[in-house]
Amino acid sequence: MMKDDFLSDDDKIQEKFKQKTWNEIRSNDSWAIFKIMSEFVNGYESMGRIGPCVSIFGSARTKPDNKYYLLAEKIAYKISQAGYGVITGGGPGIMEAGNKGAHLGNGTSVGLNIDLPFEQHYNPYIDKDKNLSFDYFFVRKVMFVKYSQGFVVMPGGFGTLDELFEAVTLIQTKKIGKFPIILVGREFWSGLLDWIKAVIIEKENNANPEDMNLIKVVDTEDEVLEVLDTFYKKYNLSPNF
């Protein structure tokens, strides 16, 4: 846990405006660079041994009796049975459901944890040698993107939306391969997608209509697997596990 985690919001603001000497700033920044580098090196070495997986994103707040938790568990089980590994954010809620489904399917179950002061704790369904922990969100996000063969996005909050739009942007700008992005739950996602089409694309012309083709929307575990299998058959590929 980092020093800032113990400060109140007002204290954090005061800390940012606190006058520091140039030597203090340079020293602090240098140590931060080394810490960031160490997280990247550890992440690359660990994930390089594991290999690419399918990432499952979703809310940490979803309870085990929620329909989306149960659906995420079924999805992870189904895709692990088909030979795909599963990466989640390693915490509770949808992340736990994803790791649980992969664990029950005897598949590879990876958790990329982020150290947070209140909400996050790793779930018990991650393979013991595949539980990674990060201080920096941006390092963790790089690991998701670099080692994902596909993205399954369950209902979630701001963090889930951040991960979704990160993946869409990187594919749209051709920074990563055109891997499938699968939104699960038409009822949950339809309002957002309607707004993107009506406002971002048609009214403001801030994106191209064909960008919507990057996203598939489904409701069942069978549809998720169908999208993944169709993608890999198109490119004559197979899961890495």
UniProtKB/TrEMBL annotation:
Assigned keywords, A-Z: Cytokinin biosynthesis, Hydrolase
Recorded catalytic reaction(s): these are: AMP + H2O = D-ribose 5-phosphate + adenine
Q: Recorded E.C. number(s)?
A: 3.2.2.n1
**InterPro entries referenced in this protein's UniProt entry, alphabetically:** LOG (IPR005269), LOG_fam (IPR031100), LOG_family_nucleotidases (IPR052341)
Q: Which GO terms describe its biological process?
A: cytokinin biosynthetic process
EC main group: hydrolase
Looking at the UniProt record for this protein, which Gene Ontology cellular component terms does it annotate, in alphabetical order?
A: cytosol
Task: Read off the Pfam families from this record.
Answer: Lysine_decarbox
Q: Name one GO molecular function term.
A: AMP nucleosidase activity
Say which domain of life the source belongs to. Answer: Bacteria
The UniProt entry, under SUPFAM superfamilies, shows: MCP/YpsA-like
PANTHER family per UniProt: CYTOKININ RIBOSIDE 5'-MONOPHOSPHATE PHOSPHORIBOHYDROLASE, LYSINE DECARBOXYLASE-LIKE PROTEIN
NCBIfam families in the record: Rossman fold protein, TIGR00730 family
Q: Which family does it belong to?
A: Belongs to the LOG family.
Q: What is this protein called?
A: Cytokinin riboside 5'-monophosphate phosphoribohydrolase
Q: What organism is this sequence from? A: Flavobacterium saliperosum
